[in-house]
Design a protein that fits this description.
228 residues; 6 helices; mainly alpha; two-stranded parallel sheet; rod-shaped; 5% strand; 5 strands
Length: 228
Amino acid sequence: MPTTRSHSALCRPRSSSKRSSDLPQKPKVDTNRILEEVSDVATFFKKEVKKSHLELTKLRIAKKRAEKALYRARAMQEDLKATVERITAARDAVAGCDVCKGCASRQFILVECGHVSCYGCLRNWFHTSLREQIDDSTIIPEYLRRRPVNAETLRELHDGGYLDVVLYDCPVCEEPVRMKPTEVNKLSAFFEVANDVLGQPKNRVVNDPHLSDPVLWKDLFHDEIQYV
């Protein structure tokens, strides 16, 4: 018959097989060292934050300076643009032909009335007028009518007694023109400099090929013909 333990025996705690001295000991925490390390880390971050704040302040100052410089540069650009526009307008006004309104690098003035025009406009105006007077004449031979109007034809018309008087007038005000147009030479240098700086005007007048002739107006004005 198996033996049975008493109730007191069952409830008695068993004695530990190991002593507390035999258990592994927890390492001691060096609180002071940890606090020092934390303090060092905090000091480092404070220095970095201060350094970053200083750099940010410098960047903000540099940004404000750059914005001011950009504002001044834009203002100067606008002023320069306005100045260029004023100079361009003045150049175009001074160089403008009273007939075609284009900008002419070489201008001619009619001394009778003071109007200034480009060579091409005056030449075409006078040539048309002379051609009409030749066509309307009843004494000019047919072979001279068919000829192009040039210096030789003009000389033959005068020498033959067919043309002693020519009527020219201003294309703007119709004032009678009795003298050859006079070139305005004083502004040529200004136009060259202005065109180099500002560029060629948009409505620039293309020079008439006859401007390269050594003697201008020789096919329209004869020294012995009277112009009224």
